[in-house]
Structure to design on (175 residues):
């Protein structure tokens, strides 16, 4: 059995197919590094994060998406995958602020349950080759990647629940 947090959390299966991590991404909310699988409340994710790309070179361009595969609730994710943010044309070895924000950041505000908020970084074929969808709801990372011939380079996630929620997401091998 895998100990990869993306497998254990079912990001790999619900959102992404297996991939080989090629470069790193660092997610910083309020100048604090976010660890894969950490728990963040909506009050901690009000403003868009800083995303640092560790690798590639300035001639490579990347697209970053933030999706919620558990919208509107983990037991009935009929808006899966809700697109919270999209930045295209990010040069390698920089951060998302160097790209084009084509879907403005919408902070996560789960109403029911614990939601997995997934960041996916794709390598583009070239500059200005990726375009935003018409709607935020029912976005599909797999279809999006096929449509624009994107390669997954990195992914990470955090868990988010309403401010007054309690408990955490637990994964068992038999889930």
């Amino acid at each position: 059995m895998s100990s990869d947090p993306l497998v254990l959390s079912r990001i790999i299966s619900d959102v992404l197919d297996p991939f080989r991590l090629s470069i790193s991404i660092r997610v910083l909310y309020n100048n604090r590094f976010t660890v894969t699988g950490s728990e963040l409340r909506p009050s901690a994710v009000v403003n868009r994060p800083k995303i640092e790309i560790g690798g590639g070179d300035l001639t490579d361009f990347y697209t970053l998406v933030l999706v919620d595969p558990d919208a509107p609730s983990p037991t009935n994710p009929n808006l899966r995958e809700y697109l919270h943010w999209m930045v295209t044309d990010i040069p390698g070895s920089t951060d998302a602020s160097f790209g084009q924000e084509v879907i403005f950041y919408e902070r996560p505000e789960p109403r029911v349950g614990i939601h997995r908020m997934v960041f996916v970084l794709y390598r583009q074929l070239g500059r200005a080759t990726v375009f935003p969808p018409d709607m935020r709801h029912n976005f599909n990372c797999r279809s999006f990647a096929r449509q624009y011939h994107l390669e997954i380079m990195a992914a990470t996630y955090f868990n988010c629940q309403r401010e007054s929620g309690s408990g955490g997401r637990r994964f068992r091998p038999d889930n």
Observations:
- Confidence is low (pLDDT under 50) at residues 171-175.
- The chain has one domain: 5-161.
